[in-house]
Amino acid sequence: MQHLSQKCLGVCWTFARLRAVRQLSSKVPPKPTWEKVDFDALPKVPEVDLALVEQLERISLVEFNNETGLEWLRSSVKSANRLHVVDTEGVEPLDNVLEDRELWLCEDQVTEGNCTEQVLLNALKTEEQYFVAPPGNVPLKKRDKQHLKLGLQEDEDSS
Amino acid sequence: MGSLTIKQAIHQMRKGLLSVEELCKKCQDILKKTRVLNMYVNETDPEQLSKNLQASSQAYAQEAAKCLEGIPVSFKDAFCTSDMPTTCGSKMLLNYTPPYDATMVTRTQENGAIVIGKTNMDEFAMGSGSLDGCHGPVMNPWNFAVLPAADRHVQGANNVSEDTLSVEPGDWFISGGSSGGSAAAVASGSCLASFGSDTGGSTRLPASFCGVVGLKPTYGLLSRHGLIPLVNSMDAPGIITKTVEDCSIVLNAVAGHDVMDSTTVVESYKPFEIQEDIDLSKLHIGIPKEYHGPGLSGEVLRLWQDTADNLEKAGARVTQVSMPHTQLCITCYHVLCCCEVASNMARYDGIEFGLREGSEESTEELYAASRHQGFNDVVRSRILAGNFFLLKRNYEKFFLKAQRVRRLISNDFKNVFRSGVDVLLTPISLTDAPRYRWFANQDNHTRCEEQDVLSTPANMAGVPAISIPLSLSSQGLPLSLQLIGPHFSESSLLTVAGWLEREAQFPYLNLDALGLNEEALRR
């Protein structure tokens, strides 16, 4: 460990050397330059109610764990609202930074295949050469949302 | 020997002063002594490893050694490897072994590198601390240098569940994330190079905290084939090495078009060497004033000022520039990330691969149950938020709005480079490595929003950026800065980085003398 502290000494030295040469008016701003965001001037965060929760869970196929999850969604939307401070009128959306380039496309030819076994290797349930899935086209059962009760807006108790 | 650079190791092995086996053994010794840091989640099977070592030995004997021959490297566990599980730090993929190798893996191996293992990360690369993966948190190797020995073994990350850590909060320094395992692995000397991924700073941030070089190359220069996607339009494989020169050696070995990734550009890549005698008077360095954001520590600010002054003193033209949309980057990133995550994570349903758990009543029930079990809170909340932003009524208001803001951010870079600036000098992290106790008292989202502000802009614009360690903080931890250049300017970017590196003489961590045995570390 001893050599480490010796090294540290060496570094303080380097640092001191760097500090010593400061004599120019640095181009680095001495104070933070960020402007304060006035959230009151931004659009309102939409209410997170039972209908929205059920919709998001249905399309996401994951559930909100608890009220903290709902709170997080709200703060996430609040934060996203900041984008509205800037005027983007006439600005095209940017999908990909390579938009100006011609990208490579492969020929429409089969280059690989005959790898059924490999492809099935990571599936937990297979039959013959098929993946096995439970019956489809059955809507997700309604979940009890009791655990989110306190976090939901415009709930039964208020009606 | 663990302190060797790739350049030195190759030189010694070519001259016969060092054998491939000796080098690998040295790295593995360090790996074993530092298991407490929880850097690796999988190690190459010993039999396979010795075969690979033999092949490399032979290559040297026959004077047919390639550019990375015999160099021990590691990969973030987000890169697919056909001979090792690839978990991406998630319970969802604990049982997944890909049927193919990522192109980065193939190319490093074709160039003779020895893959020794896969490194720890935040689940699906969502995080800036490497604390939120299913394998547990990663500790910064600099803990060995700055923590008194007595404190060191108390809160080892290994074999300690998250619960134990919160009950008995650790006062150790984090590695940063999400490629924390990779940065720590290189800093410790357990490998000479590691591949991370960088979507919003995940390579540069941990590199900064761990005192190593971290490069996020231009989007489209390195193949993403086999890199588990987070945000397809921003993801880039990241290179982590000890020195800038090593970084260029690895970059030269793997860069260029890949038929398996249509977003790699087709222009042939020209390998380059770092020039030592550069004419700084021809160099125009921009200091974007918006990078002095909230929370920047006095020490980082001073390093930034001193480095800018040094460049100016050495003859470079240094000017302050403005990139007005910088402040919006993190918000824009957040929206785009959630949206792409919602879409990317749709593939994890438990049918073809990954966790399959719960009701087999219907496909939807099975998907929901498996996904709920498989993903952590962070991943789930990003999926839910992403689907919120993508709802028909929100699509224009949030998703397209974010994409429009992204263009403005990208234009900021275009304008500043068009105005004659060659390279931007900025901070990369707000402070030196934070302590676990402090970092973990806020949720993942809050920390990302706070920690990633200086790193996300480069991903938005797809430009190359490199984090270079330059000095130590008052508590003895690495402090780094970032250089950002125009698209495909890696050669000049690394040349300037090399100049800064030579000036700074950063004292790399050297754990060769680490005499502690593992038992003591585990208590």
From TrEMBL, chain A:
| Role noted for this protein | Allows the formation of correctly charged Gln-tRNA(Gln) through the transamidation of misacylated Glu-tRNA(Gln) in the mitochondria. The reaction takes place in the presence of glutamine and ATP through an activated gamma-phospho-Glu-tRNA(Gln).
User: What EC designation does it have?
Assistant: 6.3.5.-
Which PANTHER family does this UniProt record tie to the protein?
Answer: GLUTAMYL-TRNA(GLN) AMIDOTRANSFERASE SUBUNIT C, MITOCHONDRIAL
Judging by the UniProt lineage, the source's domain of life is Eukaryota
Catalysed reactions, as listed in the record: L-glutamyl-tRNA(Gln) + L-glutamine + ATP + H2O = L-glutaminyl-tRNA(Gln) + L-glutamate + ADP + phosphate + H(+)
The listed locations are: Mitochondrion
Keywords carried by this UniProt record:
ATP-binding, Ligase, Mitochondrion, Nucleotide-binding, Protein biosynthesis
Q: How does it assemble?
A: Subunit of the heterotrimeric GatCAB amidotransferase (AdT) complex, composed of A, B and C subunits.
InterPro entries, sorted: Asp/Glu-ADT_sf_sub_c, GatC
One Pfam family per UniProt: GatC
Q: What family is this protein classified in?
A: Belongs to the GatC family.
**Protein name stated in the entry:** Glutamyl-tRNA(Gln) amidotransferase subunit C, mitochondrial
Automatic annotation (TrEMBL), chain B:
What is catalysed by this protein?
Answer: L-glutamyl-tRNA(Gln) + L-glutamine + ATP + H2O = L-glutaminyl-tRNA(Gln) + L-glutamate + ADP + phosphate + H(+)
Gene3D superfamilies in alphabetical order: Amidase signature (AS) domain (3.90.1300.10)
EC annotation from Swiss-Prot or TrEMBL? 6.3.5.7
SUPFAM superfamilies under this entry? Amidase signature (AS) enzymes (SSF75304)
Q: Where is the Amidase domain?
A: 20-143, 174-494
Q: Where in the cell is it found?
A: Mitochondrion
* List of catalytic residues: K76, S178, S202
Q: Which UniProt keywords apply?
A: ATP-binding, Ligase, Mitochondrion, Nucleotide-binding, Protein biosynthesis
Complex formation: Subunit of the heterotrimeric GatCAB amidotransferase (AdT) complex, composed of A, B and C subunits.
> What biological function has been recorded for the protein in this entry?
Allows the formation of correctly charged Gln-tRNA(Gln) through the transamidation of misacylated Glu-tRNA(Gln) in the mitochondria. The reaction takes place in the presence of glutamine and ATP through an activated gamma-phospho-Glu-tRNA(Gln).
List the HAMAP family hit by this protein, alphabetically: GatA
Q: What is this protein called?
A: Glutamyl-tRNA(Gln) amidotransferase subunit A, mitochondrial
Please give the organism.
Aplysia californica (California sea hare)
Taxonomy-wise, where does this protein's organism fall, top ranks first?
Eukaryota, Metazoa, Spiralia, Lophotrochozoa, Mollusca
